[in-house]
Amino acid sequence: MNSNCESYGQAGLENLIIRKVYGQDQIRYLRCHCCGAEFSERKNTAFWNTKIPESRAIKVGRQIAEGTSIKGTSRLTYTHPDTVKRLTLKFGQHAQEFHEQEAQQLDIDVLEMDERHGYVATKKQQCWDAVSIDAASKFIVHVEVGPRNTNLIESLMRGSHRRLAHPQDLVLMTDGEASYRTLFPVIFGVSYLPPVKAQWVDLPTPSIGFLEPLLTSKSSSIVRDKS
After folding, report:
1. What strands, in cross-sheet order, belong to the sheet with 140-146?
2. Chain-centroid distance, C-alpha 196
3. pTM
4. Long-range pairs of 75-84 with CB within 8 A, sequence gap ≥ 24
C-alpha cells in the first residue's frame, strides 16, 4: 500500500487487481495499476498478520468487546492467552483510530461524565478510566485512562469538547466532583449551576389504595449561561 499513489485511499477507481490468493482464509493479494505496489487486502486492518483463522479472531474480538477476561476468552475460543492479548491490543488500536475518525461533530445536548475504578492484569496495577456518554443514545463520546485527578478530568472534558458540534449549548451530568465545577466554565464557556437536592412531597391519601411519596425534583447539573 503506497501512500504516495495518486489513487491512495480512494474507493471505486478500479485500480486494483487480484494477483493471487493465499492462506487458509484465501486472502487476496492485490496490485495497483497506478503505482505497481502489491499488498494484502488485510493491510492496515485489524486482521493484519493475525496468524489464526479469521473466524476465530472474530470470536476473540466479540468476547473482549463483551468484557470477558483474557483467560476467559482464551478458554471460550480455544486460543492461547498470548494470542488473545496480542489481538486485544490490535483490535483496541484499530477501534481507537476508527472512533477518532468517525466521532466528530456530534449533535449532543446532554452529556454524562463519570469515572470508574479498575485494574490491569493484576489488582496491584490499579487504574481509573473517565468516560463521557451521550445521555440519549448512550454512545461513548470520549474515554481517558489514568490516575483520578484534575488532569484526568481535564483531558476527558477537552477530548469531549472537540468532538461536539455545539459544545456551548450543553447540559453536563456529573457526580459533582469538584474538578468538573471548576473546569467546565473554562473549557465549555458556560456557567455552573449547583445540583438541586431531591425533595419529597406528601400528597393527600386517596380514598382507595395507597400512594407512595412522590419525588418531585431530581439532581440538576450544569446549564448554559443565559447572560
Report:
1. 140-146, 122-134, 110-120, 171-173
2. 30
3. 0.69
4. 79/52, 83/51, 83/52, 84/60
- Give per-residue pLDDT as tens, 55-91: 999 999 999 999 899 999 999 999 999 999 999 999 9
Give the chain's count of helices (H) and strands (E): 5, 9
pLDDT in tens, 115-167: 988 877 677 777 899 999 999 999 999 999 988 899 999 999 999 999 999 99
Tens digit of each residue's pLDDT (9 = 90 or more) over 192-205 = 666 666 566 666 65
Please write down the HEC assignment for all residues of 99-130: HHHHCCCECCCEEEEEEEEEEECEEEEEEEEE
Kindly state the cell numbers that stand for 16.
Answer: 486494483
* Burial (Cβ within 10 Å: 0-12, 13-18, ≥19) of residue 58: middle
List, in sequence order, every beta strand (DSSP E) within the chain.
Answer: 16-22, 27-32, 38-40, 110-120, 122-134, 140-146, 171-173, 200-201, 214-215
Instruction: Compute the distance between CA of residue 113 and CA of residue 43 in angstroms, rounded to an integer.
Output: 36
- C-alpha cell read off for 195: 445540583
Residue pointed to by grid coordinates 489488582: 123
CA-closest candidate to residue 141, choices 174, 169, 112, 98 = 112
Place of cell 425534583: 217
The amino acid present at 130, given as its one-letter code, is A
Q: What is the SS3 assignment for 197?
A: coil
- Rounded Cα distance between 167 and 99, Å, is 19
CA pair distance 150, 147, nearest whole angstrom? 9
Instruction: Calculate the CA 14 to chain-centre distance.
Output: 34
